Fold:
Amino acid sequence: MKRVCVWLLSALLLLGCVKPAPAPQQSPAPAVMIEATAAPTAEPTAAPEQESLAGCYENENYDTAILTQIGEEYYLAASLYRLTFIEDAVGTWQGDRLVFAAADGNGNPLKLSFFSDGDTYTLQVEESTWELLPAGTRVEGLIRTAEEPTAGGPLFAEEPEQTQAPVQGHYVFSPKVCSVYMQEIFGPDMCEAWFNLVDAVMAGEDTFPCKDQHTYDWVMGQFPYRCLPVLEELIDYAEDREHSVKDGVASFTYLVPPKEARQRIEAFGRDMEAILNSVFADDYSDFEKALTLYIYFSNHYEYDYDAYERMYQEVIEDLSALRFFREGKGVCQEISTAYSYLLMLAGVEATTMMGPDHQWSYVRLNGQNYHIDPTFVISNRDSLAFFLMTDDQRAATGYSKEDYIITSNYAQDHPHPNYKAEDDHFAPLWSTWFGSLDRQTHTLSCPIEENEYGEWSFLDFDYTGY
Structure:
């Protein structure tokens, strides 16, 4: 019997899985099924017992467990390491934990226990003969949601009432961000003018210090889109655009009342904080931020085919990272701009790179430049084929360095560093998928290929120092 918990888990696993373009040739992503033992059959009664959701749990690697309760019995549906899908395992209370009986892919018994400690949970394999999920395997994470139980023990303690207070996580939104790439390409005067503009808007003013008209035109035209997407719908050029700067002071107009502009920026900031604090731990390295956000995009957003087709028929003026965040879908320039913007908010140096009919992200880790294409991972779920690429690898996917335009077409006519992405340290990842991340040992475990017996080989990639 397919229960509500299974449907809900399937929806979580399929969220954002679309395919705008093919990936480099790889084997199909691993999908190992565990057949669960059926629930005991009861004699028919006048009215069936009501099924209720006991709790939903998820960790930073997107391992998911969903529990439902029918009468005195609990049922478990779980996704582990993107490889294992446990369905309708039957559990009962034993002491302070639930113990579940299921079966592995070969029909052999599989015993699991599920228990909590404060705001964390643990799913542990107690007995198993399956090499992909050996006894002693533990999956841990934060309790994301849990409803009040109809019965049970301490695992499902009632949560405190939630309020509508703004998100208060470790990452705090700042309306003023500007990556090192923008500083190197646009220069310090434009970056300073950008910060002055943001300060003016947050203060409800309509003028800001700016060197000259040339600086003003580029700041107003290029920075909001990349560095504060919501600002595009809040302000515009001065009414006399050709003479917007006088004696080092620039003016602009509001599209909404100044107080509303500030409020909408603050609301946008709370949305960005919510994303950052649901994806990153406060001590993540830049590599871990780039990776977990990449996988987050893979599983939470979609490619907008309708917008893509319309682009070849008409001019679409509202394509932006802001639209992408609001609608949960977009095309390459929206996806890459949103990805790079979130990384900048989290303190990672990032920008965008353009090639023929495509745009992707460009980041700096440990002083090295890399290409990351979040658009393609949305269509090739969890694939690392487009993560931390070199120039040569980016060229192998169809985009030659000779055609690159970094950040903006401003870079075509103004001097800037000759950016190179030559570090191939992450090349072993390009033929794998994301599996799990062990931050204590700095190991990224990635499935590679499946043999004729249905067994998967793994790459354990050491990212120490990144």
Observations:
- The CA atoms of residues 222 and 466 lie 31 Å apart.
- The chain has three domains: 31-156, 180-261, 280-462.
- The radius of gyration is 25 Å.
